[in-house]
Structures are given as structure tokens and as C-alpha cells.
Automatic annotation (TrEMBL):
EC number(s) given by UniProt: 3.5.3.1
Protein name per the record: Arginase
Protein's pathway: Nitrogen metabolism; urea cycle; L-ornithine and urea from L-arginine: step 1/1
Residues where Mn(2+) 2 binds: 232
Catalytic activity: L-arginine + H2O = urea + L-ornithine
Binding site for Mn(2+) 1: 100, 127, 129, 131, 230
Organism expressing this protein natively: Thiomonas arsenitoxydans (strain DSM 22701 / CIP 110005 / 3As)
Protein's GO biological process: arginine metabolic process; urea cycle
Named cofactor requirement(s): Mn(2+)
CDD domains reported for this sequence: Arginase
Family: Belongs to the arginase family.
Gene Ontology CC entries for this record: cytoplasm
PROSITE patterns: ARGINASE_1 (PS01053), ARGINASE_2 (PS51409)
Top EC group: hydrolase
Length: 306
């Protein structure tokens, strides 16, 4: 990846995997909040590729433990192709979601690209939830609670093999940060998989700095760094515009430190921004906070010392 790749903004306006309607409006809310302008302010070249097209949300109950599975497959197939195209063009894709099930398509493309390039992959999963449910333990059937499990090979074959033979990711390449809501059976699966989780208790006890230092250990110039940023990672006091708010998340300053430490590596190579739901927001406040943090991911810093 070049020092300053072209940014490809890829809109995926769907709430197909979510518990509530409204995340389909997320890409436009981020555009209204000035994501293009904020990235250009960091000296980056930005190409907004527009929105992907996929099936509408039929709003049906789960079938065999999955809700809207055919539609989720269709949307993730489109995301996989678009993110893969951006990476092959040596661009840096930013997926504007949409709900978090879309990370299956995004990260399948990233993992496929890393295998083809012979590069290591590190995934930072910024989220209130572990997203490691399966159809046998999910309380809802909503696929936005299953992307990490699917990427690790636990899910329907059409999703687990989207970028090649399953699994797309090894648990050892994933670091989850900010977790504070995990279903009981899901917790068992997370422990079984051996995921590295820096939950909110860890952050309370040791601080965001230590969590990020450990999450970034081993990242080097041969590492593709992917950030999957679920906006419900943030505390609802600063980010109310999500469908699944969980109190007790990172503060604004903790989130800024997280983003700045990622930026300090200079290795960010792909990004998801998901679960922004303007239907629950206050005058686009959450989108503006998200854009501010994304700007920090790309180099805006509060650093005053030399």
C-alpha cells in the first residue's frame, strides 16, 4: 500500500441484518456530516463511488435461525466485489454501512487480498458486541450479531466461503475492543475460539492506551490493518444514533486516543463504518462524532508536544 492511497467511499445502504430499521440511511448521514471533506482536509484524495444496490429489506421473521439470509448473502456479495475491486486498484476502501453483517463481505475481500499478496492481517473490531452468535444460539436470528462467527467459519456456507475456503479469518488475527454486551451462549463460543477481547472492564482497569498497545502488538510494515468500526462502540451519551445502544462505552477522549494510536502506526489499509442509524439520532450528532473520529484515524491529532 502506498503512503497516501486514494480513498474509495463505498456506500451500502441496507439494514438487512439489523434488529431495527434505519441503518440503511447511514451512508448518506456520513456524507451529510462531511466525511469526504474531512478526509480531504488530511491531504487525501477521495473518490466517492456511490451506493451499492441490493435487495430491499422484507422484514420477515427468522427461518432456520437466520433472518433475511438470501438478502444478506446478496448484499455481502456486492460488498465483497466492491471492496476487492478497490484493493486491486491499490485504493483504501471505506465501507459506509449499513449494518455490521456487511463486514462479512468486506473482510472476506480483505482476507482474500492479503492471502494473494502474502501479507499478514490484523483486524481491530471496535464494538459493544462480540458478534459471535450462530444460528443455534442467537436469540434473534439477526445476522448483524454473527459476522465474526461467519468470518471464522461458523455460519452458512455461502457466507463462510465468500472469499475462498472457510474460514476467512483466524481468530488469532482479531482484536475486539470496547465489548460490553455478550449473550451467554455467545460468550462460550468466544472463549472456545480464543478471541482476544479487550472489554470495557479491561479498559476501566488498565486504560485505553494499554488496550490499544496490546491490540497493536506485532503489527509491522508487512501487516494489512483493518478497522471495523461499529458506531455502538461509543458510549450512547456521545453517540445515541445506533439501534443497539449499550451504556458504559468509551468516552470521546478514550475513542480519540484509540483512533490516534491506530493512525500512529501508519498502517490502516481498510475500514468499515457501520450501524449508524439516523432514525435514532439527534440532528445528525452521531454521524458528526463518527466523522470526527474517522478524521483522527487518518491523522488529525490533538498532539501538541513535539
Amino acid at each position: 500500500m502506498s503512503a497516501s492511497p486514494v480513498i474509495h467511499l463505498i456506500g451500502a445502504p441496507t439494514d438487512i441484518g439489523a434488529a431495527d430499521r434505519g441503518a440503511s440511511m447511514g451512508p448518506e448521514a456520513l456524507r451529510v456530516a462531511g466525511i469526504d471533506r474531512a478526509l480531504r482536509a488530511q491531504g487525501l484524495t477521495v473518490l466517492d463511488t456511490g451506493n451499492l444496490i441490493g435487495p430491499h429489506n422484507p422484514w420477515q421473521p427468522p427461518a432456520c435461525g437466520y433472518r433475511h439470509l438470501p438478502e444478506v448473502i446478496a448484499w455481502n456479495t456486492a460488498v465483497h466485489q466492491a471492496v476487492g475491486d478497490a484493493l486491486r486498484a491499490q485504493a483504501l476502501p471505506i465501507l459506509l454501512g449499513g449494518d455490521h453483517c456487511l463486514a462479512i463481505g468486506s473482510l472476506s475481500a480483505v482476507a482474500q487480498h492479503c492471502r494473494a499478496q502474502g501479507r499478514k492481517l490484523r483486524v481491530l473490531w471496535l464494538d459493544a458486541h462480540a458478534d459471535f452468535n450462530t444460528h443455534t444460539v442467537t436469540p434473534t436470528g439477526n445476522l448483524h450479531g454473527m459476522p465474526v462467527a461467519c468470518l471464522c467459519g461458523k455460519g452458512p456456507q455461502a457466507l463462510t466461503t465468500l472469499g475462498g475456503p472457510a474460514p476467512q479469518l483466524q481468530p488469532s488475527c482479531i482484536r475486539q475492543i470496547g465489548i460490553r454486551s455478550v449473550d451467554a451462549e455467545e460468550k462460550r463460543l468466544v472463549h472456545q475460539a480464543g478471541l482476544d477481547v479487550f472489554d470495557m472492564r479491561y479498559i476501566d482497569e488498565y486504560g485505553m492506551r494499554d488496550a490499544m498497545r496490546r491490540a497493536l502488538e506485532g503489527v509491522d510494515a508487512d501487516t494489512h490493518l483493518h478497522v471495523s468500526f461499529d458506531v455502538d462502540f461509543l458510549d450512547p451519551d456521545i453517540a445515541p444514533g445506533v439501534g443497539t445502544t449499550v451504556p458504559g462505552g468509551p468516552t470521546y477522549r478514550e475513542a480519540q486516543l484509540c483512533m490516534e494510536m491506530i493512525a500512529d502506526t501508519g498502517l490502516l489499509a481498510s475500514l468499515d463504518v457501520v450501524e449508524l442509524n439516523p432514525a435514532f439520532d439527534e440532528r445528525n450528532r452521531t454521524a458528526e462524532v463518527a466523522v470526527d473520529l474517522i478524521e483522527s484515524l487518518f491523522g488529525k491529532s490533538t498532539l501538541m508536544r513535539r
